[in-house]
Amino acid sequence: MAETDMPSDAPIRPPSRIKRAWESDLAWSFRHTPVAMISAFVVTLLVLAALLAPLIAPHNPFDPATLNLMNGFTPPGEANAFTGDSFLMGTDDQGRDVFSTILYGMRISLFVGFSAVLLALVIGVVLGLLAGYLGGWTETIIMRVADVQLTFPAILVAMLIFGIAKGITPPEYRDQMAIWVLILAIGLSDWVQFARVVRGATLVEKSREYVQAARLIGRSPFSIMIRHILPNVLNPVLVIATISLALAIIAEATLSFLGVGAPPTKPSLGTLIRIGQEFMFSGEWWILFFPALTLLALALSINLLGDWLRDALNPKLR
Predict the structure, then answer these.
(1) Using an 8 Å Cβ cutoff, are 76 and 88 in contact?
(2) CB-CB contact of 42 with 106 (8 Å)
(3) b/e code 18-53 from CB counts within 10 Å (16+ = b)
(4) Which domain, by its residues, includes 200?
(5) Cβ neighbours of residue 56 closer than 8 Å, sequence gap 6 or more
(6) Per-residue pLDDT of the chain (318 residues; tens, 9 = 90+)
(7) pTM reported for the whole predicted model
(8) CATH number reported for the structural domain that contains residue 307 in this entry
(9) Number of compact structural domains in the chain
């Protein structure tokens, strides 16, 4: 037998987790979908730019000590006539670097979007599991509340919740709590779709044999829902969460554009767009254009990723 020959009874090493992940159907679909790869690159680039804003941004736009009103309305790439300073994307009416404000504003938009989706996901998954597994009056009450909420546009529900929550907040804490109130408003307006999908999947899963076996060995309903049913209903939840992230970011921008979202001291992309539209017809187009383009690229990329994930996780579309 040659030295390089392996004995027939030698143990076969299982592939590593990284190799299994790389060879999975989801990874294969991602590598062969150019739109998904480009969208993931854009989302990753924007998220990293927002997280590293203090290191990347040339200026701190929210530090009054670094602002110079003489730099106001400087066009992109041109030197200011008074100070000689130039800015990549120009400046706004207060002399703030538009590129820096976009980076810092995107941090707030992403934080609000992620937090609101997480809140909606937790509420929707819990209520969906309870409605689908317990049934009876529990299901009736939860789903009728969901049906009533669906009769109103989500943005109106968010505005109503934001107004009520802000109204009961002491005036001296309203600016500090505005971001958290915004998260609460968007999250409570977006839980319904999670609950409806999880309820439908739970109704299917609870009749499966593994759930029947768990009942026979004495598992509690809570244990069955968390340990057995929940892992099998997560695929559609992940798809909805990805698409809802883009919708939550747009909802935050809409509320901030209407003046009922992020405070002026912590402007998000929506606040920057609201400020920019005031100067759109006076020639300072860049104040509106660049924040709007950033919001469009972020929301569109996340939506395209959600569409790919939906197709990749749906066995009927493979």
Answers:
(1) yes
(2) no
(3) eeeeeeeeeeebbeebeebeebbebbeebbebbeeb
(4) 29-52+96-317
(5) 49, 103
(6) 445 555 555 566 666 777 777 777 888 888 889 999 999 999 999 999 999 999 999 888 888 878 888 888 889 988 888 888 889 999 998 888 999 999 999 999 999 999 999 999 999 999 999 999 998 899 999 999 999 998 888 888 888 888 888 888 888 777 788 889 899 999 999 999 999 999 999 999 888 888 888 888 888 888 889 888 998 888 889 889 998 999 999 999 999 888 887 877 778 999 899 989 988 888 889 999 999 999 999 999 999 998 998 888 875 545
(7) 0.88
(8) 1.10.3720.10
(9) 1
The answer to the question of residue 11 being in a domain is no
